[in-house]
Design brief:
It comes from Paenibacillus cellulosilyticus. This protein has 221 residues and is α/β, with parallel strands linked by helices. The chain has six helices and nine strands. The chain has a seven-stranded mixed sheet with strand order 3-2-1-4-5-9-8, with helices on both faces. Bound molecules: S-adenosylmethionine.
Amino acid sequence: MHYSQNDKLKVAQIYDNIAESYEERTTPLTYFQAAVREFLLENVHAGQRVLDLGCGPGHLTSPLPLDVEVVGLDISTAMVDAARRKRPTGTYLVHDFHQPLPAELGKFDAIVANGCFDFCENLVQVIDNVSVALAYGGRFFFTINERRAELPFHDARWIDAGGGQVDIRMFFWSFSETAAAIETLGLRPLTYRHAPGWENETLQTTIYYGYWVVEHLRTKE
Ligand SMILES: C[S@@+](CC[C@H](N)C(=O)[O-])C[C@H]1O[C@@H](n2cnc3c(N)ncnc32)[C@H](O)[C@@H]1O
């Protein structure tokens, strides 16, 4: 299958430019905070390792207790720098999730990928990249822009995220594509919800997410 692509440098630059103001500016526009908090509260315990993928300035996982090890990855250097300042004990690295995760990062008990798969160009590849880093029995929370025929702005495979101003694509995946990717990769879906994700001011619309929690059931290594 052929996948449409973004210029990754451009995506990184756009997020570099808003890294300092991102949390303050976007928080009032989002609906996902409670879902992320609930996932972390239920699934992260003392001594465990958490991966925050597409971590932005790290605000979702930086409040975790210090006896939890947090690793954050993001394509934007300025976001990674901001996250490191917020939680100096964490490990923060520049990484594109379309590429395999660095093996030296090891396995994680919980992985969060909130809001970053808006830019996911190849769902099976990206979920595969992530799930190899999920420990046996570990849990993975992610949101995905969900393609739905009946919802305005949600019926195409991708749209221009900036309404023609920035030339960056946001990608949309159907429920069936997401479920198939999860099944193909040997992950078990635990919860799923279709609900508002955030307000896109440029497009003046609500972007709806599929909220998924999946569990790793691959054979023990
Ligand atoms: C909408 S922000 C979400 C930040 C944070 N997770 C949150 O929920 O507030 C999207 C983040 O994904 C990052 N991102 C976009 N494409 C990426 C890629 N290919 N690999 C890694 N991070 C990416 C951006 O730099 C940005 O920090």
